[in-house]
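Progress note, project year one: complex with zinc ion.
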Amino acid sequence: MPDRQPTRQPAVRGAKAPGNAPRAHLCLTSGTGPGAPAWRKRRVLLLNTTFEPLTALPLRRAIVLVVCGKAEVVHGDSAGMVLHSATSAVEVPSVIRLSTFVRVPHRSRVPLTRAALMLRDGHRCAYCGARAETIDHVVPRSRGGPHTWENCVACCTKCNHRKADRTLGELGWQLETAPRAPRGRHWRLLAGLSDADPLWLPYLGEPAA
Ligand SMILES: [Zn+2]
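Model obtained:
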């Protein structure tokens, strides 16, 4: 894709509630799922009209976009929570889609963060497939291994402990696939997030490495 500069700022930033927007009264009426109290900190994946992921918005801003008709809910919250305003009820969204296309500038290198790495590896240990809790440097840092996408994998604490500062060759371990940087600028949006809703994965375009 050519690296063209857009003629105007992406409207994502400007898509904040205009001054005359109806205020969404965030009255939570149901929510029995786990983690329901954390809903205030929730972020919502914002998709372009083309379903390309753009950013992750605070829940309040996402609700305002939906209430103002600037976006539609693509996926509701998995716990089925509903917010009531004075005049309407809005499903708590996990994924929303803009009603008007916005052009976004091309950005290249995806920063390596814990959250993005966990998503790339599907929260699974690269060595045993158990749930990953940490990050392992395939070539240990003490042996000169760099902190890069190509040298980092999601890892369970057990494997991380067993591996210590040894190399795969020394242990006789193997990786199923060579780790690599995820492609696609939308991965950048994950870099700033401490967690991401699993419902977002189908929209992030890249299968786990
Ligand atoms: Zn493991």
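The two ends are 23 Å apart (CA to CA).
The first strand starts at residue 27 and ends at 28.
No further modelling is planned for this target in the current period.
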